[in-house]
Amino acid sequence: xxxxxxxxxxxxxxxxxxxxxxxxxxxxxxxxxxxxxxxxxxxxxxxxxxxxxxxxxxxxxxxxxxxxxxxxxxxxxxxxxxxxxxxxxxxxxxxxxxxxxxxxxxxxxxxxxxxxxxxxxxxxxxxxxxxxxxxxxxxxxxxxxxxxxxxxxxxxxxxxxxxxxxxxxxxxxxxxxxxxxxxxxxxxxxxxxxxxxxxxxxxxxxxxxxxxxxxxxxxxxxxxxxxxxxxxxxxxxxxxxxxxxxxxxxxxxxxxxxxxxxxxxxxxxxxxxxxxxxxxxxxxxxxxxxxxxxxxxxxxxxxxxxxxxxxxxxxxxxxxxxxxxxxxxxxxxxxxxxxxxxxxxxxxxxxxxxxxxxxxxxxxxxxxxxxxxxxxxxxxxxxxxxxxxxxxxxxxxxxxxxxxxxxxxxxxxxxxxxxxxxxxxxxxxxxxxxxxxxxxxxxxxxxxxxxxxxxxxxxxxxxxxxxxxxxxxxxxxxxxxxxxxxxxxxx
Amino acid sequence: xxxxxxxxxxxxxxxxxxxxxxxxxxxxxxxxxxxxxxxxxxxxxxxxxxxxxxxxxxxxxxxxxxxxxxxxxxxxxxxxxxxxxxxxxxxxxxxxxxxxxxxxxxxxxxxxxxxxxxxxxxxxxxxxxxxxxxxxxxxxxxxxxxxxxxxxxxxxxxxxxxxxxxxxxxxxxx
Lengths: 491, 174
Description:
The structure holds two protein chains of two kinds.
Chain A (H helix, E strand, L loop, with lengths): L19 H6 L4 H9 L2 H11 L11 H6 L9 E6 L8 H8 L1 H15 L3 E6 L4 H16 L15 E6 L9 H8 L23 E5 H19 L4 E4 L6 E4 L3 E8 L5 E6 L4 H7 L8 E5 L8 E2 L9 H6 L8 E6 L4 H15 L5 H18 L7 E9 L5 E11 H13 E2 L4 E2 L5 H15 L1 H10 L7 H4 L16 H4 L2
Parallel strand pairs in A: 1-2, 1-4, 2-3, 7-11
Antiparallel strand pairs in A: 5-6, 7-8, 9-10, 9-11, 12-13, 14-15
Helix pairs in contact in A: 2-6, 2-9, 3-6, 3-9, 5-7, 6-9, 12-13, 12-15, 13-14, 13-15, 14-15
Chain B lengths: L1 H5 L9 H11 L9 H12 L4 H11 L3 H10 L11 E6 L2 H5 L2 H12 L19 E6 L11 E3 L2 E3 L4 H12 L1
Helix pairs in contact in B: 2-3, 3-4, 4-5
C-alpha cells in the first residue's frame, strides 16, 4: 500500500492555517526569508532548474527552463498565477486557495525574488468566490506584516499581488488565453511565438505558473534540491546521446473522482501506478475498472489493460496519454463509454472559444456525431478503408490491408483528426484546445470501438461487459507508440 | 417593438461603495482596459445584470468603446444580459458529477421549481415565475470529490441528494 506523502497539503487541515500567525508557526514565510538571506536570485532559478520541477498545470513543461527564457533586461516583468482551475476532474487548487492561501503567497514571493518581478496577478476562476475571499484576506495580512508592498522586510524589494477574477470561460486556463483575459479582452489564445516569457501580459515578459507549481517553491528552497529530487522517479532519455536525465521529481496532488469509494485529493510521490492510486482512494466502487481518465477530461483514456501505467509525466506520455493537471476520473463496469464521451464533447463544444474555424465548427460536429450514435441514429452503413498500422519495415503506415468501419465512426475520427491529428500530434488551431478535443474523441472510439459499434448496430446505447467492450492493445493502433524510440519505451 | 426602440434606460452609475472599490481596482493595472472583468463583476452585482446602460458606463470608465465591452460580456458565461432570479442555481453536469447522478438533482430541481433549464440566450426560460430562482446548467465547478454539486449565488452545496436539495430550497425560500 502506497503511503500518502503530504508536503503541499501537510498543514492543510490545521485550524486557522489561513491566518498569518498560525501559518507562521508552521515555518510560514521562513523559506522566503531563507531565500533572501542566503541566496542570490540566480541561485534560486538554478535550484528550481536542478530540482526538475515540472509545471503542474497541464503541459508538464520544466519550470526552470521556462524561467530561463525570460529576458532579464526588459522590465517590468509580470507573474501570472494560473488559478483558473476548470479542467473537469481537477480540484486541488481550490483547497490551497480556500485553506492555505499564505503558502501560495510565499511561493509567489520566492518566484518574484528569483525573477526580479514586482507585480503578480492571480487569475482566479470566477466561480471560486470563497477561494478569492480567502486569498484576498491573506494578501491583506501579508501587506500588514510587511511581506508585500514597498521594501519587503527591509530588502528593497517591491512586490505586489493582485487577484483578478475570471468569468467562467474554460479557455482562460490556457496561458495566452489567460493573458488576453487579464488584459480585459475575450479570452482567445494568442499565436505562439512570441511565447509569454518574451511577450506576455501588457506586451512585457511574463511568467505564467499554476498554483501547485508555485506552492512547490517554498519546499524546494526550504529543504534543498537534494531532498526534493529524492521524491519521484528520474528516467534516462535515451533519445539523446549521452542520455539526458528526465526528472519526474516531487509530489503531485492527484485529484481522484468518479467510481472510487473515497474521492478526494491525495498527495503522493510521482510515479505510482494507476491501480495503486485507486487503492489509495479507498478502492473501486463497483466490480471492475472499465476505464480511467488519467489527467483531466482532455487526456486520452486508459483501459483496464493499462492500469499498471505509472502516473507521471514521462510514463503517461509514453502511454500516449498525459498527466495533465492530475485529475483522475475512474469508471466502473456499469458505465457506457459512448455516454461518457458525449458528456465530454458537450463540454468542449460549449467551451470552444470560437477563434479558429476547425475547432469552432469541428467540436460541435464531433458532439453531434456522438449524440447521434447515443440517440440510436448512428448510420449503419460501413465503408472500407485502408488499414494503418505498423508495417513490415517496423514503421507506421499503410499496411496494404483494408478494414470495415461504420461510416459514422470513420467520420468521427476524421473530423476529430482534422481539428488536431492525434497520430502526428499536429493541430490546425492556435492553441492546444484542439488536441484536447480530438484526444478523448479518437482514443475513446479506438479503445472502446465494440461499444460504439454496438450502439450503431442496435440503435441504442448498449453497455458491454468490460472484456468485450475493450479492444486489446495488440489489435489496436491507439496503443502504437509511433514516435517513441524503442529504448525510450522500455524504461 | 416601437416601445423598445424609444425606451430610454435609466443611466447607470456606481454607488459610493462600488465607486471606491473601482477606484482601488483601476490602480492595479498599467492600462485601464485590463480592469474590465472585475469592473463588470462589480457592475453586475449592483445592477443584477449587464444592461446597455451598464455597458455604456463601464466603457466610459475604462475609456474603451461600448462595442468592446459588449464583446467581452458576450464571451463570458458569468455575465448576464437578461434579468435573472434572486438566486442563481448553477448545476454542474460535467463527467465526474454525471457519474454521481447529477441528473437526479437536476430533474428534482426542475420539478420542484417548476421551471425549465435556462440557456445562455434565454435566461427567462429557467427563471421561476416569482423571479426568485434561475436554474442553469454549468460546466465543471472543480469540486468533483464531493459530486454532485450545485452553486447558488456564491455558495457551493456538496454531495447532493433530492432530500438535501429540498432542505436548501426551504432555507432559501425562508
